[in-house]
């Protein structure tokens, strides 16, 4: 099947062909006709299979009757609302909608946090038909009456499971309550839990359920490599793989922002061009880091799971799980950054002894056995050496070395008893300094020579001066 067989408008097909696409992916082949027919859709597909085009293309087609070139904001109300969990995914969807609709007189806008609100407010008040947003920032604009949803016809929840898992459920409920119930609702994600399916079912009307592959699976073009290392040896092993040329360019995932910053600094000290991307960095810093990575100016991009959704990087060869994710589903989204669009990729994961349980959960989720490989050149901490053959510090017998210190003898003059006998004052000194209490003559009458205070200020008499 080709895109021309899906019933899309020629203007949209022209943009698709210019992007280099001629044949739809399985998810696009099944989802686009159902969206065009007006059905609610609940689709699960592997990451990197073209989910974004699955709802963007038919949505633009159905909005064609509203396309106009008027400058009046009233002629450009929000008609399609696309919610995403992260800024990066929002920016990616916004870019895709602009590329596919570049020949249509439809306005596309994007709002997310981390950047000033005034430019976004100006864009919203000027009018926009397709709005891509993160829930938190969108509610900020709702609070200022900068946006209204009375004309919304399409509601799209992209990466719906992650939005609900990240605690956006109350925000999404507030947004859904503001949208007319006659809307068409589309849910797209790589993974779905049973709980999320029940919650999302309340927002869809008789949805078409599309699952192009087994639930929570990964594409076959990704090779999985798991290296058994110690916690202390992970950074050294990563540097070794980078310096040996095993990894040419990689997206490296850490579980914490502190860990991502620490690893980035370590790689930089080892001469590896690297940058970090996480929620503590400003949107400008995150965008710059991502653009440098896409332009091959940076060899390693260290990220937290915030970057696991929405990063669309052409021909990314490696994804490294520096820390195995606590949530097994995050493994699917992380490695989905490589092996996209039928290209080959490799996912390298470091597994410490404390990560064995997480590894088993990942194997259970993707229904695939991941073989542990012993890392080479494990170093002095013997990370890859079996425990039975390791030599502990107590097993090493070291010879005792006795050091003899030379005795230092101090020479003292003969006959000098100053340092060898206790001090005894002589009689002359005793009598001079400490007069006997029985010697009344030796006692001093303290008041005998005392003078009145006034006498101290009087000039001396002639008797005393001898005049």
Kindly report the spatial arrangement of strands forming the biggest sheet. Answer: 3-4-2-5-6-1-7
Taken from the alpha-carbon principal axes, the silhouette is globular
Query: Averaging pLDDT over every residue, what do you get?
Result: 81
CATH superfamily of the largest domain: P-loop containing nucleotide triphosphate hydrolases
Alpha-carbon distance between the termini?
A: 141 Å
CATH topology of the largest domain: Rossmann fold
**What is the β-strand count?**
14
* Overall tally of structural domains: 2
Pattern of helices and strands:
HHEHEHEHEHEHHEHEEHEHEHEEHEHEHH
Work out the radius of gyration: 40 Å
Largest sheet: 7 strands, parallel
Classify the helix fraction into a percent range. Answer: 25-40%
Unreliable stretches (pLDDT < 50, length at least 5) are 378-399, 429-434, 440-444
- CATH top level label of the largest domain: Alpha Beta
Structural class: alpha/beta
Q: Count the helices. How many?
A: 16
Strand content: 5-15%
Model description:
It is built from 16 helices and 14 strands. The chain has 467 residues and is α/β, with parallel strands linked by helices. The chain folds into two domains: 209 residues, Rossmann fold, CATH 3.40.50; 171 residues, Rossmann fold (3-Layer(aba) Sandwich), CATH 3.40.50.300. Helix 5 links the parallel strand 3 and strand 4. About 7% of the residues have low confidence.
């Amino acid at each position: 099947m080709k895109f021309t067989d899906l019933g899309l408008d020629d203007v949209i097909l022209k943009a698709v062909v210019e992007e280099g696409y001629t044949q739809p992916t399985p998810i696009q082949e099944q989802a686009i006709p159902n969206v065009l027919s007006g059905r609610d859709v609940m689709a699960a597909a592997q990451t990197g299979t073209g989910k974004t085009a699955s709802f963007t293309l038919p949505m633009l087609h159905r909005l064609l009757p509203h396309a106009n070139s008027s400058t009046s904001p009233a002629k450009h109300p929000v008609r399609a609302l696309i919610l995403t969990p992260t800024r990066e995914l929002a920016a990616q969807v916004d870019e895709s909608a602009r590329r596919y609709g570049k020949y249509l007189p439809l306005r596309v806008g994007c709002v997310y946090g981390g950047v000033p609100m005034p430019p976004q407010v100006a864009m919203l008040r000027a009018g926009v038909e397709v709005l891509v947003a993160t829930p938190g920032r969108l509610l900020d604009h709702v609070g200022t009456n900068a946006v209204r949803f009375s004309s919304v016809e399409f509601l799209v929840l992209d990466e719906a499971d992650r939005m609900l898992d990240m605690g956006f459920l109350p925000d999404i409920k507030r947004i859904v309550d503001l949208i007319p119930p006659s809307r068409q609702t589309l849910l797209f994600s790589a993974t779905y839990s049973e709980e999320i399916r029940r919650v999302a079912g309340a927002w869809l009307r008789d949805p078409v359920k599309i699952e192009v592959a087994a639930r929570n699976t990964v594409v076959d073009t990704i090779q999985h490599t798991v290296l058994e290392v110690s916690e202390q040896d992970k950074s050294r092993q990563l540097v070794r793989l980078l310096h040996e040329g095993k990894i040419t360019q990689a997206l490296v995932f850490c579980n914490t922002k502190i860990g991502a910053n620490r690893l980035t600094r370590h790689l930089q000290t080892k001469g590896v061009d690297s940058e970090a991307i996480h929620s503590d960095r400003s949107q400008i810093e995150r965008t710059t880091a991502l653009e440098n990575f896409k332009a091959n100016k940076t060899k390693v991009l260290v990220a937290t799971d915030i970057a696991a959704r929405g990063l669309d990087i052409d021909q990314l060869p490696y994804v490294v799980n520096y820390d195995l994710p606590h949530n097994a589903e995050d493994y699917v989204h992380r490695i989905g950054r490589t092996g996209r669009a039928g290209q080959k990729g490799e996912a390298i994961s470091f597994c410490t002894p404390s990560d064995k349980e997480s590894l088993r959960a990942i194997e259970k989720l993707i229904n695939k056995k991941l073989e542990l490989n012993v890392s080479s050149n494990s170093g002095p901490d013997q990370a890859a050496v079996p425990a039975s053959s390791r030599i502990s510090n107590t097993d090493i017998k070291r010879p005792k070395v006795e050091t003899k210190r030379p005795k230092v003898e101090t020479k003292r003059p003969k006959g000098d008893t100053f340092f060898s006998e206790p001090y005894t004052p002589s009689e002359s000194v005793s009598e001079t300094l400490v007069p006997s209490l029985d010697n009344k003559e030796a006692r001093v009458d303290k008041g005998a020579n005392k003078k009145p205070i006034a006498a101290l200020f009087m000039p001396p008499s002639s008797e005393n001066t001898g005049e």
